[in-house]
């Protein structure tokens, strides 16, 4: 029996703090584009090449990170993620070669993979009775990072401060958080999500990874693609579909982001007190599908605003994280590989969607809405099948 004292709040606090820096690392290259183009002696196209390394590191290491996290534990992979980010920030500060910069961007993707495969299972292991709320709240801290970075960039540019101090400051942030996390003892990596009364024995039969596991992994793609399409294409739809001004169209993303942040806290409350995650992963995509269908039949300025708020609330408020919680409920000893598989397919949506949607939108921007509707509907269908299997293998009165 493990008698080590475990401070779950201390561990989770450090994990959430890491997600602020993770979201900053993902967009910092383009935010400091003027400084970095000069330093690397390139243009925005070259900087885009550098930034593409992030996706490569993320896609190719997520699955391996999940398998190894299940084998070696969560703390190691959280630290590996932090080290990768530190390498990027320090390296990029002094890098002058675009190809080395590309390799440093791959380190960001690797850090993203390692941090996710260590942190997401650790959250459910620290709070097995409220895994849904703990997982969904990550979205709020990701939003904090993307919210504060533009202010940091503006401050540095306005006061003509060398951008490298920001990068070194982010590194110092990681070091401090690493020192805070170091003495913490993590829960056993096989800790299962607990149901009512604190029971872990809520199974009636053995779940099948090759069936419901694969369906949930596919939902990693569909739940992400649903909000990616709106995030990337709503301004274009508004400009080309209803002649909205460029400024007004970009403002829609602010409505979307605000709604997604509010949704995080509402969803966390709902899964804690009212509905199990298995029901939320059907209801939220269904609401997204309804919003998209209304939008398709009435593309107007007002409906663009409603769609931005509606999709931010229903599609971007933590559906992916709740889908992951359901997967971890079904496969409590394979939580790392669950994160690896699901987040790999989630990452694929960022590659596949830009290849498909622009070709459809060339004919008619409304096709982007229609394809999003069918993807959201696919989530509802997949989730409904998973619910059927969920009820067969899990005693619903015990979770």
The number of strands is 0
CATH architectural category of the largest domain: Up-down Bundle
Please state roughly what percent of the residues sit in beta strands, choosing from under 5%, 5-15%, 15-25%, 25-35%, 35-45% or over 45%. Answer: under 5%
CATH superfamily of the largest domain: MFS general substrate transporter like domains
Order of helices and strands: HHHHHHHHHHHHHHH
Which CATH top level class of the largest domain fits?
Mainly Alpha
Helix proportion range: over 70%
Q: Return the domain count.
A: 2
Low-confidence stretches: none
Counted by DSSP, the helix tally is 15
Shape: globular
Class per helix and strand makeup: mainly alpha
Average pLDDT confidence is: 89
The largest sheet, given as strand count, sense and whether it forms a barrel, is:
none
* Named CATH topology of the largest domain: Growth Hormone, Chain: A
What distance separates the N and C termini? 24 Å
Query: How much is the radius of gyration in Å?
Result: 21 Å
Quick gist of this model?
This protein is mainly α and about 400 residues long. About 80% of the residues lie in helices and about 0% in strands.
Overall description:
By secondary structure, this protein is mostly helical. The protein folds into two domains: 8-181, MFS general substrate transporter like domains (Growth Hormone, Chain: A, Up-down Bundle); 196-398, Up-down Bundle (Growth Hormone, Chain: A). The chain contains 15 helices and no strands. It has helices at 8-31, 33-40, 44-72, 74-94, 98-126, 131-136, 138-158, 164-181, 209-242, 246-273, 277-297, 301-314, 319-330, 335-363, 366-393. Helix 1 crosses helix 7 (138-158), helix 1 runs antiparallel to helix 8 (164-181) and helix 9 runs antiparallel to helix 10. The longest helix has 34 residues, at 209-242. The chain is globular. 49% of the residues are buried. The model has no long low-confidence stretch (mean pLDDT 89).
């Amino acid at each position: 029996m493990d008698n080590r004292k475990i401070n779950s709040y201390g561990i989770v606090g450090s994990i959430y703090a890491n997600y602020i820096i993770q979201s900053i690392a993902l967009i910092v290259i383009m935010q400091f584009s003027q400084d970095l183009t000069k330093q690397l002696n390139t243009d925005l196209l070259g900087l885009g090449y550098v930034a593409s390394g992030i996706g490569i590191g993320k896609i190719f290491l997520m699955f391996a990170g999940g398998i190894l996290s299940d084998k070696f534990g969560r703390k190691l992979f959280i630290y590996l993620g932090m080290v990768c980010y530190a390498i990027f920030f320090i390296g990029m500060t002094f890098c002058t070669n675009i190809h080395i910069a590309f390799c440093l961007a791959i380190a960001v993707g690797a850090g993203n993979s390692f941090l996710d495969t260590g942190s997401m299972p650790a959250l459910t292991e620290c709070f097995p009775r409220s895994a849904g709320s703990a997982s969904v709240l990550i979205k709020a801290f990701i939003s904090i990072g993307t919210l504060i970075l533009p202010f940091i960039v503006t401050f540095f540019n306005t006061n003509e401060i060398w951008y490298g101090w920001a990068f070194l400051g982010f590194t110092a942030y990681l070091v401090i958080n690493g020192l805070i996390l170091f003495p913490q003892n993590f829960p056993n990596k096989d800790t299962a999500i607990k149901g009512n009364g604190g029971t872990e024995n809520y199974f009636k039969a053995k779940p099948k990874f090759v069936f419901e596991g694969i369906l949930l992994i596919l939902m990693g793609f569909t739940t992400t693609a649903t909000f990616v399409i709106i995030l990337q294409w709503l301004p274009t739809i508004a400009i080309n579909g209803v002649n909205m001004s460029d400024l007004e169209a970009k403002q829609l993303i602010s409505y979307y982001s605000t709604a997604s942040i509010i949704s995080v806290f509402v969803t966390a409350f709902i899964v804690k007190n009212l509905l199990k995650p298995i029901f939320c992963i059907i209801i939220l995509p269904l609401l997204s599908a309804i919003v998209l269908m209304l939008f398709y039949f009435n593309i107007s300025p007002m409906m663009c605003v409603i769609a931005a708020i509606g999709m931010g609330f229903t599609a971007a408020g933590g559906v992916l994280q709740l889908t992951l919680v359901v997967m971890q409920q079904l496969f409590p000893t394979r939580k790392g590989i669950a994160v690896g598989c699901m987040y790999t397919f989630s990452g694929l949506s960022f590659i596949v969607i830009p290849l498909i949607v622009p070709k459809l939108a060339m004919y008619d921007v409304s096709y982007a809405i229609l394809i999003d509707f069918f993807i959201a509907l696919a989530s509802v269908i997949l989730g409904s099948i998973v619910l059927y299997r969920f009820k067969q293998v899990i005693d619903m009165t015990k979770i």
